[in-house]
Hints:
Blueprint: H1 13-37, H2 43-68, H3 77-95, H4 99-104, H5 106-145
Helix pairs in contact: 1-2, 1-5, 2-3
Amino acid sequence: MIAWKKDYSCFNKDIDLQHQKLFALLDEFYSIVNVIREGHDQYDNLVQIFDELSKYTIYHFRFEEGIFTNPENGYSAEKIKVHKNQHQFFIDKIAEVDFASMDDDQRYYAIEFVLFLAKWIEEHILTIDKKFFTAWQEKQQKETTV
Ligand SMILES: [Fe+2]
């Protein structure tokens, strides 16, 4: 759904791999949307993909937070707060999905949701993640060359 490009790189192998895994889950979600468009019920698959997305985003966000909340990494308390709030917003969005409404109109609901998730993730990576991880990477490089 979102093709990986160099611009998305945060110059950290683990973070890039995790972001790619998120894109792969969105691809899976988008294939479910396509099956719905063909007129097939996909309720069980939707429940499953929401479950996978929820688990994986929580894992990934905690991993990122483990890095940027480390005082040695120079991220201010204010920036930590803003970044964590963005993560929580996304986690809540997935957790609050109303499966009953989704079942009433799978086509509309699933398309709206997958587009929202893709746009949010792309923006998040390109702005706040990229800014922090680029600075972090530069800091590490400086430290190893000193
Ligand atoms: Fe993040």
